[in-house]
Amino acid sequence: MNTSSKQTAGSSTDIDDWRPEDEKFWENTGKRIAYRNLWISVPALLCGFAIWGMWGIITVQMLNLGFPFSQAELFSLTAISGLAGATMRIPASFLIRLSGGRNTIFLTTAMLLAPAVGTGIALQHPEWPLWVFQLMALWSGVGGGNFASSMSNIGTFFPKRLQGTALGLNAGLGNFGVTTMQIVIPLVMTVSLFGDLGGEPMTLVKDSGWILGKITAGTTTWVQNAGFAWVLSLVPLSVICFFGMNNLTTVSPNMGGTIPAFLKIIWLYTLSFLPAGVGLYLYLPAPSGLGMLNMWLTMPLIIVSTLMVMKLTAFGTMKDNIAAQFSIFKNKHTWAMTVLYIVTFGSFIGFSMALPLSITVIFGISHVPDASGVLQHTLKNPNAPSALTYAWIGPFVGALVRPIGGWLSDKTGGSIVTQCISAVMVVASGAVGYVMWLAYQSTTPEQYFLMFMLLFVLLFTASGIGNGSTFRSIAVIFDRQQAGPVLGWTSAVAAYGAFIAPVVIGQQIKAGSPEVAMYGFAVFYALCLGLNWWFYLRAGAEIRNP
Description:
Blueprint: E1 6-7, E2 14-15, H1 23-53, H2 55-65, H3 71-99, H4 101-111, H5 113-122, H6 130-139, H7 141-157, H8 160-174, H9 176-188, E3 202-203, E4 208-210, E5 213-215, E6 220-221, H10 225-228, H11 231-244, E7 247-248, H12 258-283, H13 295-313, H14 317-325, H15 332-363, E8 365-369, E9 375-380, H16 387-390, H17 393-400, H18 402-412, H19 414-439, H20 449-477, H21 480-494, H22 497-510, H23 515-537
Parallel strand pairs: 1-2, 2-7
Antiparallel strand pairs: 3-6, 4-5, 8-9
Helix pairs in contact: 1-7, 1-8, 1-9, 1-11, 2-3, 2-15, 3-4, 3-6, 3-7, 3-12, 3-13, 3-15, 3-21, 3-22, 4-7, 4-11, 4-12, 5-6, 7-8, 7-21, 8-18, 8-20, 9-17, 12-13, 15-19, 15-20, 15-21, 15-22, 15-23, 17-20, 18-19, 18-20, 19-20, 19-23, 20-21, 22-23
């Protein structure tokens, strides 16, 4: 069944003739269509990031409401959402070629309604077991997966000379979903947004906050609105995606119609949940899992098993398309750019996920030695800054400067920009670690908070600019057929930063040494400086960029 109509180049769903490198075609026809798809894509991606990242804020409020879970268990919810979103990006990177841009963006945006509503329901029941919240966090990963398909789609609409800017706009403005979520969720939790339909409020047992300041303990809050509020934007956005976007048959020649395209998307997304769920069961400690694997074994196991499941279960034209796109793994530059993208996007999303709870745990407590001189991390700090007031600033700046990174890279070359921001991140990460160490040894940690936030804003700024540079580099290094899948794949692996950062920082806080996590990140950034120089900047490089 094919419910779409076809046209050489126009406003109907499927477009058969697409020549963005032809200047006359671009000016007369292509530009209008490309930018329409871009401006619809941006808010859809924004909502995807908001749903994916919302557990970074929700866990802070669960702690403030006295949900019966430990700090480590709350960090695990953020990490699970991060891991699921990264894993979903693996099939998402193939969806545009298999199912078409309009079909994919519409359905994956509509899919976000399920975790949004499910999370709102679960948050009304603090007595429910931990696994329910872990399941909702896993389901929220759909929003993270949407980035890979969104970027793969937008890249196909624009000529190479504009891809750095276009992809930077899509990703940068889309990434405002993190900031939007960090501002909107604390706001909507202060009001009865849906009246009786939205459920009863709860009472804060610890101080909370929002963008304008602190909210004291004893205040009522509607934590369930953290999920329910997104229905107000997702429903109209889904309709706009369905009627306003296009499929390029030059990129997606074997869609087979709208309904078959939807079925392929659902099939691949469903399959990706299986290895993620099994991997998490092996990783998570009892009672949620077996606790058999550490993080560094869990991630490659999930990645490899997801790829294998996709390859083994594909059928028909889907099988041929997936096999063709697997050819990117034979190119060494796929692997080099994957590592470099971890520096930029992996850092951005990882720190976005981990920062709110890190602020709460490091600065919300006075670190006082007991009678034997051993530091205790249990006494509430009366002068603590609220994570919900400040956590949005870093992701906001990182998203804001992302288009600048694309523009700079279009002008000067992607790899030189990547080199500069990596050097900044080495220094900033080490400095954040030192400030963390000072705060975690202090009875008045708030005195170090300003420096902590300024350094984190610097990290977010560098990672945001670097995102634009890696987009541009991929567009230069790979041809049009491979650039989309490579971008999707690199974004999938880099998104595991959303799993790594909460786990590593959470583990080191538990061990009493949060600074070690940041020192480790600094070492990784330094190694990537050398990798980027070797492949793309040295005199004898196979591909100099510039």
